[in-house]
Amino acid sequence: MQSRVLLRSTFLSLFLFVYVPLIGMSKSSAAETPQFRDTELFSDNGAVSVTWTPEEPPKGSQFQVKLWPETTKEKLNLSRVIYRGSLPSAFVSGLPGGEYQLKVRLIGDKGPKSAWSRPAHLTVKHHPLSFTFWLLGLGAIVTIATVGVILRGARS
């Protein structure tokens, strides 16, 4: 008799601890996967600002954004976290020319709370070096002309 009571109480305990919490779960309680507002980004100076939705993370969550070069295989794992916080935007700078992917997700104290978003593709194409030297030459001509005008005016 006692073994039946013990068996029933064990099953009841398992039911209460395992099944009952699952009843209250719904898709609405699961964290929504963030998505980038623009999925095709371009930069001519190695800096870009990215934004995503939702505007605010759920309570107890933060956004995490990862960046990695598209030309490498995921096996190499050259990705790096470039942002972790509660604002729905991040600014990335200092990138060399190339193709990159960005992904965002929600994280909490105990790990991920959502899946990674669809990737946003970033293309960084710096100005050609010849353009830089052309601007430096133009600046030198303007500087020399300005100094010449000042010296000529001082002699008069």
In brief:
With 156 residues, this protein is an alpha+beta fold. The chain contains two helices and nine strands.
Q: Could you explain how this protein is built, in words?
A:
- With 156 residues, the chain is of the alpha+beta class.
- The chain has a domain at 32-127: Immunoglobulin-like (Sandwich), CATH 2.60.40.10.
- The chain contains two helices and nine strands.
- Strands 2, 4, 5, 7, 8 and 9 form a six-stranded mixed β-sheet that branches.
- A hairpin with a 2-residue loop joins strand 7 and strand 8.
- The model is unreliable at 20-29 (pLDDT under 50).
Task: Name its key features.
single chain; 156 residues; alpha+beta; Immunoglobulin-like; 6-stranded mixed sheet; 3-stranded antiparallel sheet; 2 helices; elongated
SSE inventory with pairings:
Layout: H1 2-24, E1 35-36, E2 40-43, E3 48-53, E4 62-69, E5 80-85, E6 89-92, E7 98-108, E8 111-112, E9 120-124, H2 129-155
Parallel strand pairs: 2-9
Antiparallel strand pairs: 1-3, 3-6, 4-5, 4-7, 7-8, 7-9
Question: Quick one: overall form?
Answer: elongated
Query: Would you tell me which CATH topology of the domain at 32-127 applies?
Result: Immunoglobulin-like
Number of strands: 9
Structural class: alpha+beta
* Gap between N and C termini: 121 Å
Tell me the helix content: 25-40%
Strand content: 25-35%
* CATH homolog superfamily of the domain at 32-127: Immunoglobulins
Number of helices: 2
Rg = 29 Å
Mean model confidence by pLDDT: 81
CATH class of the domain at 32-127 equals: Mainly Beta
CATH architecture of the domain at 32-127: Sandwich
User: What pattern of helices and strands is seen along the backbone?
Assistant: HEEEEEEEEEH
